[in-house]
Amino acid sequence: MLYAGVLPAYFLIFAVCGVFGADIDFSLIDGQSVARCRIVYKDLSFEANVVLDAGQSGSVFLHENTGKMLEFASGDTLSMEFAGGAVLSNLKTTPMGLEFLEDLTKDFASELNEIPAVAMLGIDAFSGHTFTIDQARGKISLSNDPLTLEPQEPNVFAFNFERGRYGLVLNLKGPDGFDIKAGISTRRRETLIDTIAAELASDLDNNLGDISLGGITINDYTPLRATELSGGNPDMPDIILGNVFFESFAFSVDPVNDIIHFRQKIKTARSFPEQAFFDAVRDEDPDAIEEFINDSGRDNFYYQEAAASLAQMRLSQEPFDKSAWLRAVEHTVKAAQIERKSQVLINHCQSLRNSGKDPELVLVRQLLEQAKEWADDDINSRAPFEIQAQLGLAALELGEITQARRHMLSAVFGLPKEPRFNLWMGMVYEKMDKNLRAWSRYIISAMADDPPPEATPALDRLNNNIEFRKEFGMRDARELLEGHIPDFHPENRAQQRPAITTLEFFNSVDNPDCGAIALAVDGIGEYFSDYNVQVVKYHLSRPTGDPMETRISVTRADYYGVKTTPALFIDGKRVDLRGFKGMMPQDVFNGLLEGIENQDPAKRELMTNTTRKDGQIEVEFQPLVEGLEYQSAVLLVEGDVMSAGASGLWMYRNVVRHGIQSLFDEEKVTYTIPDVEALWEDIDTTIGQIEEKYSTSFITRPWYVDPDRCRIVVLIQEKESKRIVLSFEKAFEE
After folding, report:
1. Which fold has domain 22-142?
2. According to the lineage, what is the superkingdom (predicted)?
């Protein structure tokens, strides 16, 4: 909760006088050092949890969502008041995405007293003053006393440290005396060692040798978990000391003199059974992991992780040992809280089905039935419907269509917008030859915020199903999707003939800048629909691949000198679109309409004669002004085409699918109307060529052209000015 108002007087005293002698109380939650405080920014204050990472460079890293809520301005600072009395003031703060804070808040809400974790503190938050972190006491003490390299107290080890890119760096020695760089982190439980450093420090039997920090043997006070730390980055340390190590040592940091003290709290070497687990994971040894699980029991911190790792390894083993895998699954269920047990089993079913190691799906069904035991306890009440969906999917894969339909209907009844359930329901309907119902399910799935990767290709498969398209066209699709996809229609219609004849728009499905302008251009066509204003859209693979690009689109783009999309030409004259970027379709429409209404009417300077015979359209034109030369283009335009892309439109109108452009010296053009099936094949081939050229694979391949939604558009324009003086349309079929 945020509080606005005057800060209490004691806060102001601390802020002015400093923080020396005060404490910060903290506790370990999921192995991370977490403190509660009141964050103050301008006239706002609120309680929050913050994660302490004493070895990290930087001052305060604020979660970006909190930064937005506070309207945090770049360069601003904030203050923190802690329960132990310490106040840190004027903290340089950087808002950024910190997903681990979201996970901590979600998974440990009760431990955090339902107060979110919103920030992380680094070493620079302590304003250059000495601080001591004592994990046993759960306190960070702040003082103004410098540290020395010759401490007078017993059991204190003193070292210089360096400043690395990622924070404090200590110099350690490996078993053969080679140098190892170590960092410190109080926001992680375990100590990590880079895999390369671990190999160098191990003997031929893969046993890790002693790693020392002065008189401290690191291995005696913490297990070391091998992982890839550096990723080839030389600035990353080889080891990061975590909070298990600091159970044995309190440490003090003097950031002014770059000195650190380790005060030994536990004087004897410790035993760490989890080292066996870390080694087993490194060696990919499932038998050793299972031995660790059986020896350590459910109370071990790593029991849940070990069980999950074991199940994954057992599933990937060849040959597949069903009994061994089921034992691992049983451990994962035991490790899970009751509200998560069903989902754990459901996840195992998905992994098993994907592995192909249960072809009859006997185990899958067995585990799903077992998952029903805890379904009503599910943390978000999804499990009962997820189980039904998974049972339906299993039945579908086994060809039990009636049973699959029954399970899937139960699932989508409970979660009607779940994209996976709708995809699977669509698959059931498609198996039942109920393609319209399947299409309606696929579109729900494909248009979800996080659609399954199979959803859009499934939709595209039906869009290209010739028999289905005979009874379901894209006009039907547009009507069904009204209100669910971006669209624009002007409120009124023009009352007088416009000064223009043609709008040519160069579009791309993967260019977000095209969407609003494309809708506005269609709106102009609707507005002047009583006066036969032609709207045609050429799709281009500019800047990226577009499955609706055609040869005539490229020809017209080259003719106009179009290098990228979007581009608009009205009667052959280019429109400057720079001012329309980021606008809504209505605003683009208004801007375009204003320019059109201010144009002078085009003069008709030629006579034409159009004839149609034997599948050909022949256009002859006779100039009325001597000396003028003309060029013509004949275009096959489809009313509606569906395709997915970054423009977000889904439905594209007035798409040029085929055509020709005449030479300048011709006064007659003959266009052979393509055979529809040959056109389908030609477009499919072109899509494949575009995919190969751009090394991509389109999730929609809209090769089907609906003859009932096509028209022939004829454009005639001057050679020199490229001004279109006449455009008209003819039916595709008579």
Report:
1. Cathepsin D, subunit A; domain 1 (2.40.70)
2. Bacteria
